[in-house]
Amino acid sequence: MDSIEDVLPLDIAQNLKELKDDLDLKIPPKKLEKNLLIATWNIRGFGDITRKWKSAASDSPKRDLHSLICIAEIIKRFDVIAVQEVKANLKGLRDVLKVLGNDWSLILTDVNQGDAGNGERMAYIFDTRRVNLSGLACELVVPNEWTNEISNGMLTKQFVRSPYAVSFRAQDQTFILVTLHILYGKASSDRIEELRGIAKWLSSWASDINAYHQNLIALGDFNIDKRGDLLNETFISEGLYIPPALQNEKVTRSIFDETKYYDQIAWFKDSKKKNNLSLEFLTGGNYDFVKTALNNRGLTKQSLFFMLSDHYPLWAEFKL
């Protein structure tokens, strides 16, 4: 059995160098006391691993140590990253933290129970040299009063996977991240209640002057099919704002279908259309790992789906 702490095989070391070089070109560098890099990534079924540098066709799971090295290198480029689909089994996550080193930490939920919850956790991984926890960590629960608002299209039940809110501090800026993974369902209409419910929840929080902090950023896998469709309009119905840099058609979310608009990073604007953030948004995008990560192994996109993910990381850079 191989270990993530072993010396890298030469071909994997070369692939990792190519990945680093590509990340250098496409992700802004961390600038001391000047910027903040926030990301979200649905890492498909992030749980058990095969402890080999290269898994064989007969191995299950397919995700191997080479995959984890690449995942860690991508995560390393951000100050804090919200991760969806972390499973009950934490072997893969623990190995990634070993690669990241002692300056990195995480905070995560317990497993969502029930079939629809898919045995998933919500997690944040963060660079403690740049970002620290600032006190708040909670899962959002639907008030009973909202479950009676059926005529208004609100939730008639709890979120399948409870949204997870955590507050962080970077320099003198405090901000709250709220991550979630909307239930996909059998049809797009199955997602409307949860999307409208989270939009209402966040709007209520953002407008409360006594709230913990108004720097409120929603991010995660919202399972929105396309730009401008009903799901997208539902998500922004309470005033959530997606910056144009992340609406650009070149900023894709899915390795299989460039039209999908699943993952989002969004916040609120006030009545004068001014950002309800003390952070200044600079730029954002996705990171397309298909041509770099594991590219020395001749893998299909279907194989990458099992070994890395079917989602690209989505990121935003803010000025401090």
UniProtKB/TrEMBL annotation:
Domain of life of the source: Bacteria
Entry's Gene Ontology molecular function annotations: endonuclease activity
Start and end residues of each Endonuclease/exonuclease/phosphatase domain: 39-227
Pfam families linked to this entry: Exo_endo_phos (PF03372)
Keyword annotations: Endonuclease, Hydrolase, Nuclease
Protein name (database record): Endonuclease/exonuclease/phosphatase family protein
